[in-house]
């Protein structure tokens, strides 16, 4: 369990290093009702550092399940106008967004996949502009995470839920560097290390990234023309830096969506909309999914892969060494924020315009010409095993080793 002081530090990290709220800014906190106490702490911190006003967007995963079981497909696909109105308000006011990602990874177990698909598709359509505003850094945003009972129980199934919650707080505290004397300073140093590696990758301007391991991954991922590797801190369109994911261990960029070939096997389960997908592999040809299999959650994988055309290619490649604190914890969190930071990952679907030089000022056609992928989806899945070898291949065919046995060698 964290001390009150550590919790305060955590809330401060979210406000100052994460979203990097500026004086006089409006803040939107998105959080499940189970996390109300921590959300209130963040709200107080925001005012301490000069927020103009704090809005709370409550989520309720339990009601989400009740609705999924009780409501019709039509009702679930009917997104109320006030959702779009609030999104518009957020974009106009350039709020900074702090999301608390916490939930039962199996909350939707047993629900009708058809209804789930319709409801998530409707939500994605309704939130399209808002998502574009976050993906292009028009809004500064961050995601942090705290334990909830059902989630902790899934992560530590042999413990009673109170003990599981305590254990998870300890793990998150360590991962978030809250056990350091000065967590904010520890984060600054960590961010600097990631940036050094990103600069190395940018200086080499690789044409391809090649990954292989004993599990059967043999994949060549072309990189978008004029791509740039990004880590930890990014610049908002207003020039103010922020850190979108906390924790973050990744250095990522955009694949070229017509230059991906080979097969990739997942390294960790993928949790998507309350479904667990595991033991799966995806084969790519000329940048598109040519075949896929899954031993667990095949329907859920199929649901993802039938969203639109763009989901059949990749929008992100991210590299993370096996000695990151999350990987070393050995804990499978069943939550993308943590698990994707434990392992190299790829994302099916949309790429971030920020991962190509000048991308924020490009039209959809210009982005496409650079090999940038567009989709309603962005689904990260983990591919980095402890034995993965990764090379960067230059435009002249030169090979630069980046990873050996799951760890950075640069
Ligand atoms: Zn990522
Ligand atoms: Zn991603």
Bound molecules: zinc ion
Q: Total number of β-strand segments?
A: 20
Q: What is the share of helical residues?
A: 25-40%
Low-confidence spans: none
Secondary structure class reads: alpha+beta
For the record, the count of structural domains works out to 2
What percentage of amino acids are in beta strands?
A: 25-35%
What is the mean pLDDT?
Answer: 95
- The termini sit apart by 36 Å
Radius of gyration: 20 Å
The general outline is: globular
> Number of DSSP helices?
14
Largest sheet, if any?
9 strands, antiparallel
Describe it for me?
The structure is a single chain. This protein has helices spanning 4-18, 36-48, 61-70, 73-76, 81-93, 113-126, 128-135, 149-155, 161-175, 183-204, 298-305, 325-329, 336-339, 364-369; strands at 26-32, 53-59, 96-100, 141-144, 208-212, 218-223, 230-231, 233-235, 241-243, 251-253, 255-265, 270-272, 275-285, 288-296, 314-319, 345-349, 378-382, 389-393, 399-404, 407-408. It is α+β, with helices and mostly antiparallel strands. Strands 5, 6, 11, 12, 13, 14, 18, 19 and 20 form a nine-stranded antiparallel β-sheet that branches. It has a five-stranded antiparallel β-sheet with strand order 7-10-15-16-17, covered by helices on one side. The longest helix is centred in the middle third of the chain and has 22 residues, at 183-204. The two termini are 36 Å apart. The model has no long low-confidence stretch (mean pLDDT 95). Bound molecules: zinc ion (ZN) (2 copies).
Could you provide a short overview of the structure?
It contains 14 helices and 20 strands.
């Amino acid at each position: 369990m964290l001390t009150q002081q550590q919790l305060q530090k955590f809330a401060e990290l979210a406000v100052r290093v994460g979203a990097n709220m500026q004086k006089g800014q409006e803040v939107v906190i998105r959080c499940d009702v189970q996390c109300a106490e921590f959300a209130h702490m963040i709200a107080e911190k925001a005012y301490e550092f000069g927020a103009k006003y704090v809005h709370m967007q409550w989520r309720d995963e339990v009601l989400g399940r009740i609705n999924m079981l009780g409501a019709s497909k039509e009702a679930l696909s009917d997104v109320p106008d006030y959702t779009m109105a609030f999104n518009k308000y957020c974009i106009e006011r350039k709020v900074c967004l702090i999301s608390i990602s916490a939930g039962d990874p199996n909350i939707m177990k047993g629900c009708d996949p058809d209804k789930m698909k319709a409801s998530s598709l409707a939500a994605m359509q309704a939130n399209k502009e808002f998502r574009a505003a976050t993906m292009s850094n028009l809004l500064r945003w961050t995601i942090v995470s705290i334990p909830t009972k059902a989630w902790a129980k899934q992560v530590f199934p042999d413990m009673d839920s109170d003990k599981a919650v305590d254990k998870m707080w300890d793990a998150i505290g360590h991962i978030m560097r809250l056990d350091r004397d000065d967590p904010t300073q520890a984060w600054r140093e960590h961010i600097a290390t990631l940036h050094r590696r990103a600069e190395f990758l940018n200086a080499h301007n690789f044409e391809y990234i090649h990954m292989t391991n004993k599990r059967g991954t043999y994949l060549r991922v072309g990189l978008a023309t004029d791509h740039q590797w990004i880590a930890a801190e990014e610049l908002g369109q207003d020039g103010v830096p922020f850190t979108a994911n906390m924790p973050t261990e990744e250095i990522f960029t955009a694949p070229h969506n017509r230059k991906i070939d080979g097969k990739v096997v997942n390294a960790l389960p993928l949790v998507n909309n309350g479904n667990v997908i595991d033991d799966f592999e995806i084969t790519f040809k000329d940048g598109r999914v040519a075949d896929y299999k899954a031993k667990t959650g095949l329907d859920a994988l199929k649901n993802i892969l039938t969203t639109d055309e763009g989901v059949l290619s990749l929008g992100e490649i991210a590299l993370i060494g096996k000695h990151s604190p999350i990987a070393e914890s050995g804990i499978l969190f069943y939550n993308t924020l943590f698990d994707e930071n434990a392992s190299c990952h790829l994302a099916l679907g949309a790429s971030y315009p920020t991962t190509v030089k000048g991308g924020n000022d490009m039209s959809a056609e210009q982005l496409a010409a650079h090999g940038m992928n567009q989709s309603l989806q962005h689904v990260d899945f983990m591919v980095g095993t402890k034995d993965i070898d990764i090379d960067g291949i230059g435009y002249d065919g030169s090979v630069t080793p980046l990873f050996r046995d799951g760890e950075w060698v640069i």
